[in-house]
Fold this sequence. Notes:
Number of helices: 15
Strand content: 15-25%
CATH class of the largest domain: Mainly Alpha
Number of domains: 2
Amino acid sequence: MIAASNGSAEILTAIYDAVLDPSRWDEVVGRIVAATNSVSGSIAIRRSGSIHLSAIHNMDPFYLDLYAKNFYNRNPLDTLKDSLSPGQIRSYTKVTQSRTFKSSAYFNEFIHPQGWGDGVISCLARGQTASGYFGIIRSPDRMLVEPAEWNLLETVVPHLQRAVEVQRLLLRATTIADSLGQAFTAAGFGVLLVSGDCGVLFGNAKAEEHIRRRVGLGYARGRLVATDRVVNQRLQALVRAGTKTEHGTEGGGGTLELRREGEGQRLIVHVIPLVPQRTWAILDRDRPAAAVFVVDPGADLLVRVRQFAARFGLTSAEIRVLAEIIAGSRMHAAADKLKIAEGTVRTHAKRILAKTGTTRQSELIRRFFETSLPGSSGFW
């Protein structure tokens, strides 16, 4: 438990509040500045050729602009910044009190006019393209950091590091969800990405709608389940196949039919294992083992089917057979619906396989959904 006597407990609360509300980072910096009897402070992100102040307290905009224009690339303190490892805290004293520093333009045009005396810097994060820093500025009559003030910084900085990382992960998760949502919404199908134990990593709006309607699918403790026990066992087996490299090929996957009890309404579920080496992790934690496509045969799939057919040069008769395959129909059922012989359906199906470069129905289904997703070539 952190003692509240030095104000650290309130500061830590403010830090984690700022993770959820980034507009409060200025307040966090202000609290630390006040608790350490400093003059001003900032959280800055340095990238190649630029600097971004994520949070500031008591800094004159005129001098911030002057720094960005004149001193960013010739700051004598950068050598110290670059030598810090994440979590390290150091005072600038050895540099700022040197004769060389006090004769520099940086001191005389930027530091001295603001009434600054010294500073303390800590590295919050260091990456290949960017680094994050937290710094406080001391006044000339309070350049020495008292032990209690230093202890507060040592307490606070690790939490600043964690907060920066959490915010990065939240931003990354939001970006991933947004990009997936846009791509999979455009696809026109319900799509879920699931881990090897059917844990749901992502579901687009269409899939969530099917789940809410309870047409044979649901969630149980964050995992995707089929309401029918036998179908659920098959679903789990197909998804588990995605965790095995040898099944993460074009031949993997399978099709399930879901029915709402007492009603004629049904959904077709195509489970397609994903190749482990070619999928990326969500939050650097779980990798999708399978994509689950939920197709409503009653919906108009013809637009997607025709787009696919145009790409591979399918005839009008082959288009009708392909639509039945994607809708989960077996050969005899497709023949009955299309009012043609089952042998004719099989002939069309063989021609579709040949034209699309596939050798079996599961490969064809995979190829159909791959080409239906915008930008999918980088994911599968």
